[in-house]
Design goal:
This protein is an alpha/beta fold and 209 residues long. It is 18% helix and 32% strand. It has four helices and 13 strands.
Length: 209
């Protein structure tokens, strides 16, 4: 059985995760970021694409005030092994880099070659590799290409969407890249579970139909 998959999105009201120049810190407020850390702590693995690593150099750790946390497995999808050896995700902690090319050492991270689709790690193969590490739940945190690939594959079970009360316009970077939909009926569909304020932001929760 594959791990359950939650896609977490932190965007502007119009679904953008960054300006055209790539600036993204911080779109959402402190309350939303704290809830994001709670979600990290509640999952066995956190997954991002290499573009997120190159742009933001995230730690991908769960940090909650006043309590210790069992840290999740940190996973990077990196087709051509562009993750720098100095990246935070490649130093310390438990990290797994999944690639489409011949593996080579990247810092202290484990590197595994998996089946690829059009030169990128297959979402299904990535989940199988993560499951072999003992993880039963995965939190996807970006970027737009990774989100789109898992949505196209029908592998996203839940959405946790935080929307900040700002607009970035069409030149901003979308939270989900192209889905290549020919018909409206092909669109991934979700049911809304809850909508609530989270500080100044809006928190929307969905599950797949």
């Amino acid at each position: 059985m594959r791990p359950s998959v939650t896609l977490k999105l932190a965007t502007s009201l119009d679904g953008r995760i960054a300006t055209a120049s790539g600036e993204s810190r911080w779109i959402t407020g402190e309350a939303a970021r704290l809830e994001g850390h709670r979600q990290r702590a509640a999952h066995d693995a956190i997954l991002v694409g290499v573009e997120t690593v190159l742009m933001d150099d995230p730690e991908l750790t769960a940090r909650l005030p006043g309590r210790s946390v069992d840290q999740p497995l940190r996973v990077v999808l990196d087709s051509r092994l562009r993750t720098p050896v100095t990246a935070k995700v490649a130093t310390g902690g438990d990290s797994l880099i999944l690639t489409a090319c011949e593996p080579r050492p990247v810092g202290s991270a484990r590197v595994e070659q998996v089946e690829s689709v059009e030169g990128r790690p297959s979402p299904a193969a990535a989940l199988a590799a993560i499951r072999r590490q003992g993880a039963a739940s995965v939190l996807i945190e970006g970027g737009g290409q990774v989100a789109a690939s898992f949505l196209r594959a029908g592998l996203v079970d839940r959405l946790e969407w935080f929307r900040a009360p700002i607009l970035l316009g069409g030149e901003g970077r979308p939270c989900v890249a192209a889905l290549a939909l020919a018909r409206l009926s092909d669109a991934p569909r979700f049911r809304c579970l809850a909508v609530a304020p989270c500080g100044d932001d809006l928190w929307e929760r969905y599950e797949r139909l």
